[in-house]
Amino acid sequence: MNRRHFLTTSAAAAASLAPQAPAQSARPNIVYILADDLGYGDLRCYNDSSAVPTPNYDRVAREGVRFTDCHSPSSVCTPTRYGILTGRYCWRSRLKSGVLQGYHRALIEPGRATVPSMLKSAGYHTAGVGKWHLGFGSTEPVDYSKPFDISPNSHGFDYYYGIPASLDFEPYCYVENNRAVDPPTAFTPGLNVPRGVFWRQGKVAPSFVFEDVLPTLAKKATTYIAERAREPQRPFFLYLPLTGPHTPWLPTRKFEGKSAAGIYGDFVAMVDDVIGQVTEALRQHGLENNTLLILTSDNGAHWTPEDRARYPHRANAWWRGQKADIHDAGHRIPFLARWPGRIAPGTVSGQLTCLTDLFATAAEINGIALKENEAEDSFSFLSAATAAPAKSPARASIVHHSAQGMFALRRSEWKLAESLGSGGFTEPQKESPTPNGPTGQLYNLMADPAESDNLFLRNPTKVAELTAELNAIRTKGRSRA
Ligand SMILES: [Ca+2]
């Protein structure tokens, strides 16, 4: 279904119902904005010494709940997106480490329930706008000159518009529903100067302009919100995975010099402005009060030791490591939710949460019971956000997963990583045990949030306990009982 069709059907529905001025749905709209590589320490509401002004994120934190112990299910893009949409850890799928490339086939298994397919069945209109990075079609390499036989529409989205993968992965083109808008028939030699202004060489649509992508997604999102406002009796779900502040860092002129963290910080300020555009669209169309707005990130910031030496900015705050790592900076992320009347302003929650928890939460909001074969790793965070009585057990542990496929288990203050090294981008990525030395990593995050004191050899009981739980979650194929 294309946008023109929406407009026609929404306008017709609004016209036919105009005399009654239809009431808004009793169920909330859900707008889920997923930044790409935004760090815990980038936002002032998490890190008051952030070198980037983030007034729009900070406002949502003041008006809603700020979770302090939320994690992406992976420390890189593709597996986190799989987890958000399916409520299931991606390492249970065919992708055991790393990410998809732009020519890879669809990752989400045909027939698997997703957040949009569940909400669509419950009567929602569903749209995805932004970076997909979950593959298209059933064959490889994907042929962008033809419609895809598997697309976001196959996974429950009534409408989708965006780009195939990260904005530094070819092919560079827009996709609308099941086809490339302008197929990638030209070639870009790539770019890598200065730091962060980077994309790989490869195929590109002749009309594609890298700098325009984030503004285009913002415009598509606000246009969609305006369209849905014409049919207020039907709730909608908007999944909005942004392309920033992942590389290429491309702040437009308006944002140059907005931060004290160079091009990166200026680009984060531009992402914050997108949040402002979306919240303003919700307000303008009278949808603010009946919308659960969620703001988060798909993994930690790609902020290296060199970046930390160069700028007075800690994109991942005090957490160890960076994007891709098993250490907390890889996957501990900002998570804000606003729902006026349901979530008290200024709430701060230390409840352990994972981005796979959207599925169970959206189901609880809609009174939908989860089926046995769906959302295996999803726990509702509704009671933590709203202080309403819990209808199901809260999440008590989480499995972390790094870019290279290293596992860790977190339960209360304890974190066990199965092997040594970062498992991601930070050196050493892999580390061989020394004779009689530890073979894994055990940290007490309450006493040692920087993960500096490995207790693996000193607390074998805790190592055994957490190892047993990690193995059980893996072998039984699900986290929920
Ligand atoms: Ca990412």
Strand order, largest beta sheet: 7-6-5-4-12-1-13-14-2-15
Task: Encode the helix/strand succession as letters.
Answer: HEHEEHHEEEEEEEEHEHEHEEEHHEEEEH
Globally, the shape reads globular
Strand residue percentage: 15-25%
How would you sum up the major sheet?
A: 10 strands, mixed
Distance between the termini: 39 Å
Fraction of residues in helices?
Answer: 10-25%
Helical run tally: 10
Radius of gyration: 22 Å
CATH class of the largest domain, named Alpha Beta
Protein structure class:
alpha/beta
Ions, cofactors and other ligands present here are: calcium ion
Unreliable spans: 1-21
CATH superfamily of the largest domain: Alkaline Phosphatase, subunit A
Question: How does this structure look, described?
Answer:
- It is a single chain.
- The protein is of the alpha/beta class and 481 residues long.
- The protein has two domains: 25-387, Alkaline Phosphatase, subunit A, CATH 3.40.720; 401-476, Arylsulfatase, C-terminal domain (2-Layer Sandwich), CATH 3.30.1120.10.
- The chain contains ten helices and 20 strands.
- The chain starts with a helix and ends in a 5-residue tail after the last helix.
- Bound molecules: calcium ion.
- Calcium ion binds at residues 36-37, 77, 246, 298-299.
